[in-house]
Amino acid sequence: xxxxxxxxxxxxxxxxxxxxxxxxxxxxxxxxxxxxxxxxxxxxxxxxxxxxxxxxxxxxxxxxxxxxxxxxxxxxxxxxxxxxxxxxxxxxxxxxxxxxxxxxxxxxxxxxxxxxxxxxxxxxxxxxxxxxxxxxxxxxxxxxxxxxxxxxxxxxxxxxxxxxxxxxxxxxxxxxxxxxxxxxxxxxxxxxxxxxxxxxxxxxxxxxxxxxxxxxxxxxxxxxxxxxxxxxxxxxxxxxxxxxxxxxxxxxxxxxxxxxxxxxxxxxxxxxxxxxxxxxxxxxxxxxxxxxxxxxxxxxxxxxxxxxxxxxxxxxxxxxxxxxxxxxxxxxxxxxxxxxxxxxxxxxxxxxxxxxxxxxxxxxxxxxxxxxxxxxxxxxxxxxxxxxxxxxxxxxxxxxxxxxxxxxxxxxxxxxx
Length: 417
Hints:
Its cofactor is pyridoxal 5'-phosphate. By secondary structure, this protein is of the alpha/beta class.
């Protein structure tokens, strides 16, 4: 926890580089922030303003319960019961300072040293969100299961779960995945979730499903991908991608045997999450404002933006290079695989940086990029592009990426290994 993970080093490098050079225009396609959508921003400003006027003295000038602001906890329970037919109450809910903190708490509670031996946090499929790799306080306390690759057509591919490998692992304490995933945008189907639940049951561990990009909000994976209730699943949700990343608010919904220790952990560490934004969230849930934003603004925005970026890549990247785009059902990124021996993700990153463009190297999303047996060089042949910058920035950045790929190809021909 005292050192930066791989991607954090990259993001720190981007911040340092852009901050140290004045007068230069940077094209940042590595950014993880959600897009600034005026209707979303204005709605949250209004919701927060109403909460500020109505309840500032009660929620911001007093300590509150560690489980969460009662009005927020009750609104969350009512929302999920009404929308999905669940039967949950306050005992099934905890509100925390961001979904990543809730994932960290779950890792601290369910993995590490124990009476029966050391257990690990397991990512059922890599690549997955690199922030997970900083969740363990134990050295080598996190491992990931490599996927199987399936080529789909000329320019697309897809990752598949290797369930036998997952089921055969030892020392599992907790399973965790994002759906839609960061970086690939892959949604786990209801059938796959059920098979993951069965694997978790076989290991007798919880399964955390991070719905930060999924349903019900922000819904950047299609509203049909509903979260699944199961006594073994800890469903984690975030308000960040729905428009409030800076407020650090998330919540978990699960069986109370999993929620109660998380509440205790929060009480012992942070006491509770910020309460003014909890009040704003309660108002948004009760008024259906959030559902309206997702259906009419957020969902359509990202669907249209993804079509734009995928079309741009298809028309811009060199035809004589073997590259594939991961088929994505959601999320805020495009995940590109360049299947050429001469390609290296860090070399691409450094070359693009000198041209004023930033992407994210792919290796940091894998837990064993340097020693992969089944995937070979694949973890070092991928990179992530954000679809959230404005379209002019994306178009200009992709043009530079295409040119650099062509230069890397030409250099490999002149100087073969």
